[in-house]
């Protein structure tokens, strides 16, 4: 495999680490900034909204840019955002840093996927893409626990410096070792958004929205959820490591199950297990049960994503690239809604309600999926009957 693919994976690794690690930092961050945990949680909301809205716009505006330069500048922007967070004396500057980082991440990820497909040897494109996307999963297994450990030993600001420095190293490596890579065929913003007029695609994306909401309404405030049973920073680090390993297993199982048993069955299983895991986080009484719930959360939550992408490719055919980019943006909209709603639940209710709220939304997503799947099957039978006539 071309060594440049692994440099791209380092980029997705630091983006994933930055995106996921902040959940474990929120209690310490809120304490030092003298703000509430729910207010600190809006830093996740800000990043997610900036990514969801900024990525398609910025990707369209830079559609004709040479990819090596774009990848380099994107990681520099991402690093700058994290360095701002590491220097920030106030909540406001961290908020700005998170938005800047989201802009860099939103530019880098789609460009990295395209570049990987160009740099890969013939017959190795799938493997190259899985390595780049896998950087996000490795972030859950290694990056997030490592970031949490750095925060417990040094300071939460050091985690942002850690991410920023690695991003800068990856940017320099791309500039030094990558060839010039031409831009792909450009798609206008209007063309991207036109797919939302398709009821089948829109409904499928609404299930992505429900899934991401259920994932992040609890994950964003996981430090508080475990804090209510007396879990300390070391325990939370272990929990994040175990849930990260479970997430890695879930991603691999999701791809296997979608190929073997079909994406529909895999999605149903994933959403059912995720609902159980999320609701359990409202009721667990011991750290061990909480860790078990988070392991199931990681496995089920990350089983869903490859199966859903598999289904979207089947629904969209030759336009799958654009539809998958909409899926990614929808994921971040769901993340923003989940973290924002979770903050409101904590502020006006209790941390123990988070799992119930998340489970209810996942259940709605499951019901919508089962209904639309049945509707699609009936339409297919009608089409087949018409052809036989």
List key phrases describing it:
single chain; 389 residues; mainly alpha; Growth Hormone, Chain: A; 2 domains; 0% strand; globular; disordered C terminus
Structure explained in plain terms:
The protein is mostly helical and 389 residues long. It has two domains: 1-186, MFS general substrate transporter like domains (Growth Hormone, Chain: A), CATH 1.20.1250.20; 190-389, MFS general substrate transporter like domains (Growth Hormone, Chain: A, Up-down Bundle). 85% of the residues lie in helices and 0% in strands. The protein is built from 14 helices and no strands. The protein has helices at residues 3-32, 37-61, 67-87, 91-119, 125-153, 156-177, 189-194, 199-219, 222-227, 233-261, 263-280, 287-316, 320-348, 354-388.
Describe the SSE topology.
Elements: H1 3-32, H2 37-61, H3 67-87, H4 91-119, H5 125-153, H6 156-177, H7 189-194, H8 199-219, H9 222-227, H10 233-261, H11 263-280, H12 287-316, H13 320-348, H14 354-388
What is the fold named in CATH at topology level of the largest domain? Growth Hormone, Chain: A
Number of helices: 14
Q: What is the CATH domain class of the largest domain?
A: Mainly Alpha
Overall body shape = globular
Task: Return the domain count.
Answer: 2
């Amino acid at each position: 495999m071309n060594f440049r693919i692994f440099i791209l994976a380092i980029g997705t690794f630091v983006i994933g680490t930055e995106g996921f690690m902040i959940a474990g930092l929120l209690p310490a961050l809120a304490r030092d900034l003298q703000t509430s945990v729910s207010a600190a949680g809006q830093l996740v909301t800000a990043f997610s909204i900036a990514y969801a809205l900024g990525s398609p716009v910025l990707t369209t505006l830079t559609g004709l840019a040479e990819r090596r330069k774009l990848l380099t500048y994107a990681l520099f922007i991402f690093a700058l955002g994290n360095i701002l967070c590491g220097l920030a004396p106030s909540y406001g500057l961290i908020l700005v840093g998170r938005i800047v980082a989201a802009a860099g991440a939103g530019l880098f990820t789609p460009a990295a996927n395209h570049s990987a497909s160009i740099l890969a040897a013939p017959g190795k494109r799938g493997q190259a893409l899985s390595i780049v996307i896998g950087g996000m999963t490795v972030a859950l297994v290694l990056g997030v626990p490592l970031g949490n450990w750095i925060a417990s030993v040094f300071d939460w600001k050091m985690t942002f410096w850690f991410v920023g420095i690695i991003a800068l190293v990856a940017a320099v490596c791309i500039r030094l070792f990558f060839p010039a890579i031409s831009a792909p065929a450009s798609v206008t913003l209007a063309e991207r958004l036109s797919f939302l007029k398709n009821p089948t695609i829109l409904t499928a994306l609404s299930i992505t929205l429900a899934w991401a909401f259920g994932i992040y309404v609890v994950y964003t405030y996981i430090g508080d959820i475990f804090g209510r049973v007396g879990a300390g920073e070391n325990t939370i680090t272990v929990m994040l490591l175990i849930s990260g390993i479970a997430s890695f297993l879930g991603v691999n199982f999701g791809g296997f199950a979608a190929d073997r048993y079909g994406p529909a069955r895999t999605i149903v299983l994933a959403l059912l297990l995720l609902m159980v895991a999320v609701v359990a986080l409202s009721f667990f009484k011991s750290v061990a049960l909480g860790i078990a719930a988070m392991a199931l959360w990681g496995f089920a939550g990350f089983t869903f994503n490859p199966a859903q992408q598999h289904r979207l490719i089947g629904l969209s055919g030759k336009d799958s690239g654009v539809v998958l980019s909409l899926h990614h943006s929808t994921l971040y909209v769901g993340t923003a809604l989940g973290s924002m709603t979770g903050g409101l639940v904590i502020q006006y209710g209790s941390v123990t309600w988070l799992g119930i709220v998340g489970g209810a939304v996942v259940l709605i997503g499951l019901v919508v999926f089962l209904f639309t799947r049945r509707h699609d099957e009936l339409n297919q039978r009608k089409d087949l009957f018409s052809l036989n006539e």
